[in-house]
Amino acid sequence: MTDVRNDDFTLINTPADVIPLYRGNGQKEHEQYIGFETEIFVYRHDKNGTPVGASSRECAQIVAHLKSRGEEPQLEMASAVEYASPAYPVTEVAKLNREITRAWGAYQDGIREAGFKTNDAALAPFVTLDSAKENLVDRDRARGLVKGMDLFKAPEFLKVTLLCTSTQVSLSYADPEDLRNTLATGYALTGAIFGVFANYPAFIEGKDERLQTNPRAAFYDAFGKDGGIPQSLLQSTSGEDFIRRHAEQVFKTDMLFYYDQKQNLVWPEKPVKFEELKALGLNTRSNYDLAETFVYTDYKVCNIRNSEGKPIGKRVEVRGFDAGELGAISAVPFCHALLRDPAGRGAVQGLLADYGLLPDQDGWQERLLAARRSAAHHEGKYLDVPFGTRPDGNNGNLKDFARDLGGILKAYSARHPELAAAIAPVIEICETGKPLAQIKSEQTRDYAHALAQLGADSSGASIANDDKPQATKPSARQAFKP
Known about the structure:
The protein has about 475 residues and is an alpha+beta fold. The chain contains 19 helices and 17 strands. The protein has helices at about 55-70, 95-115, 130-135, 140-150, 155-165, 175-190, 190-195, 215-220, 230-235, 240-250, 285-290, 325-340, 340-355, 365-375, 400-415, 420-430, 435-440, 445-450, 475-480; strands at about 35-45, 50-55, 75, 80-85, 90, 115-120, 165-170, 225-230, 255, 260, 265, 270-275, 295, 300-305, 310-320, 385-390, 395. Strands 1, 2, 3, 4, 5, 6, 7, 14 and 15 form a nine-stranded antiparallel β-sheet that branches. Strands 8-13 form a two-stranded parallel ribbon. Strands 9-12 form a two-stranded antiparallel ribbon. The longest helix is centred in the first third of the chain and has 21 residues, at about 95-115. The radius of gyration is 22 Å and the shape is globular. Residues about 455-480 have low confidence and may be disordered.
């Protein structure tokens, strides 16, 4: 969770005032940058063997311990810590992934040393909104955000904020056209990212009901225009047009809080739009940047910051990857292969064209939205869902698309053998058509079994790999109190 700088009082009067912020870095393709961050949910078992999320105080202790090991962790909203990599040139993507792999192992080891466990998934079965609120990080902005969402937003806003952990990859861009082209290709892959990188348990929120959706993807439905795939991209005709539409969206986005002239956070009685802050003389660059953070689309356009936290440009943040080892190790080469490697990007754009999902194809907007909807609400079918339209007019299928996508990633591995091991698990999912979430669901009998898989039963005994009949041991479901 990164705070927005609160000390830029430059006035932003119209969307035209911010268009220069999105001009890009003007550098050549091989001079662009790529970065990474991931959130790690942390829990422990109490004296009864019941899994509980790490408290705010415990997370602070974990962060301190990781720092003592030479790492630079950050606190997340509730029961989680975050690792963020430096940005690397795209020509050094293998070096970046080696650093990510090193850090991933170091964080896992450090968290275990501190007496806690990490959850290899986007959600933990036992966490509810009530339990997550008890573990909220001790920061005014976090408390204000949760209070505002609780009062004025649908419950799904808080579920994304407090229940979900994810992995993000950031990409710089050269100019407005590069920005739009990257977003258009990226959004066309949204359903595939949610589907292939699906990594969540069979049961969530302390409920016995087996999941039939991709929870993070489905939660974003409640965000309306500020979630999923934005109209600013779907309606745009050029890079400049997209930037204008995006700025207009930010101007009209509800803000749960804002900065005053003394750099303090203000929580209004009800949400305000950035454009409404002009009447208060608070239509500042800091508040514009803050308003942009309230746009929760699958790909965010957001600030690049220097080491002092000062915005120095904009970047694209790819946000569809679930938390866990798969996303941590494979998301960077996946994004490089399909969005920044010229051969891989050309191949995937050709594949996407076969499914009618690119901007120069009539009806692509509706197909894009439908493909995302199918991946989010898969009804237990995971990758076996509609995806685009084939040249013969028949519906495409995400499983078929993923299989061909795996072929593109195989060719990428041959060109980049130093990244072959990192991308291999994704290729396997593409070839088998079974994401981790599906495998976990097939291997989980019920909610009690989902808890048992976290490592201890109600007596505290380790049963992480247990496959005995549930009736022969104490009920973890009974031990858990939401």
